[in-house]
Amino acid sequence: MSVVAIVVIAVAVVFLLTIVAIATRRSRLERRRGEAQDLRREASARSARAERVNAAADERAAAAERADAEAAERAAQARLDASLAQERREEAQRVTESARAHHDRARDVDPDVSDDGEDEARRIDREAVGQRDG
């Protein structure tokens, strides 16, 4: 073999090795690009899922806040109702005491009524029970 043939063969081998290296590099780059694209798709899908989960959590939190607000409003109304009921009981007690005082005064003034007031007290109690039941 002549030196020229050896040089041509060596150049051809280097050329082929360069082509193979370039093709291998391109193949590896395409494979990595595909992998990156797959990872991006997966990341997008996970982000979308995270957004849906976050939105659902926000909805649940808002519903819980509404329920808390409604419960607080009902509790405030219940306290108000209890306060009004207590005021009415106190007013009823004052009216009852006033009525008894008037009955006592009427008994003191009326010459035809006995002084013990026991019958009148029973009648007042019966009237009070009848008004509560009716």
Rg from C-alpha positions?
A: 50 Å
Q: How many helix segments?
A: 2
**Structural class label:** mainly alpha
Shape: rod-shaped
Q: Overall pLDDT, averaged?
A: 89
Order of helices and strands: HH
User: What share of residues are in beta strands?
Assistant: under 5%
Largest sheet: none
Q: Percentage of helical residues? A: over 70%
Span of the ends, CA to CA? 132 Å
Which residues sit in consecutive blocks of at least 5 with pLDDT less than 50?
A: none
Strand tally is 0
Supply the key terms.
92% helix; 0% strand; 2 helices; mainly alpha; 134 residues
Description:
It is a single chain. Helices cover 92% and strands 0% of the residues. It contains two helices and no strands. It has helices at 3-109, 118-133. It starts with a helix and ends with a helix. The model has no long low-confidence stretch (mean pLDDT 89).
Secondary structure layout plus pairing:
Blueprint: H1 3-109, H2 118-133
Write a brief caption for the model.
The chain is an all-alpha fold. It has helices at 3-109, 118-133.
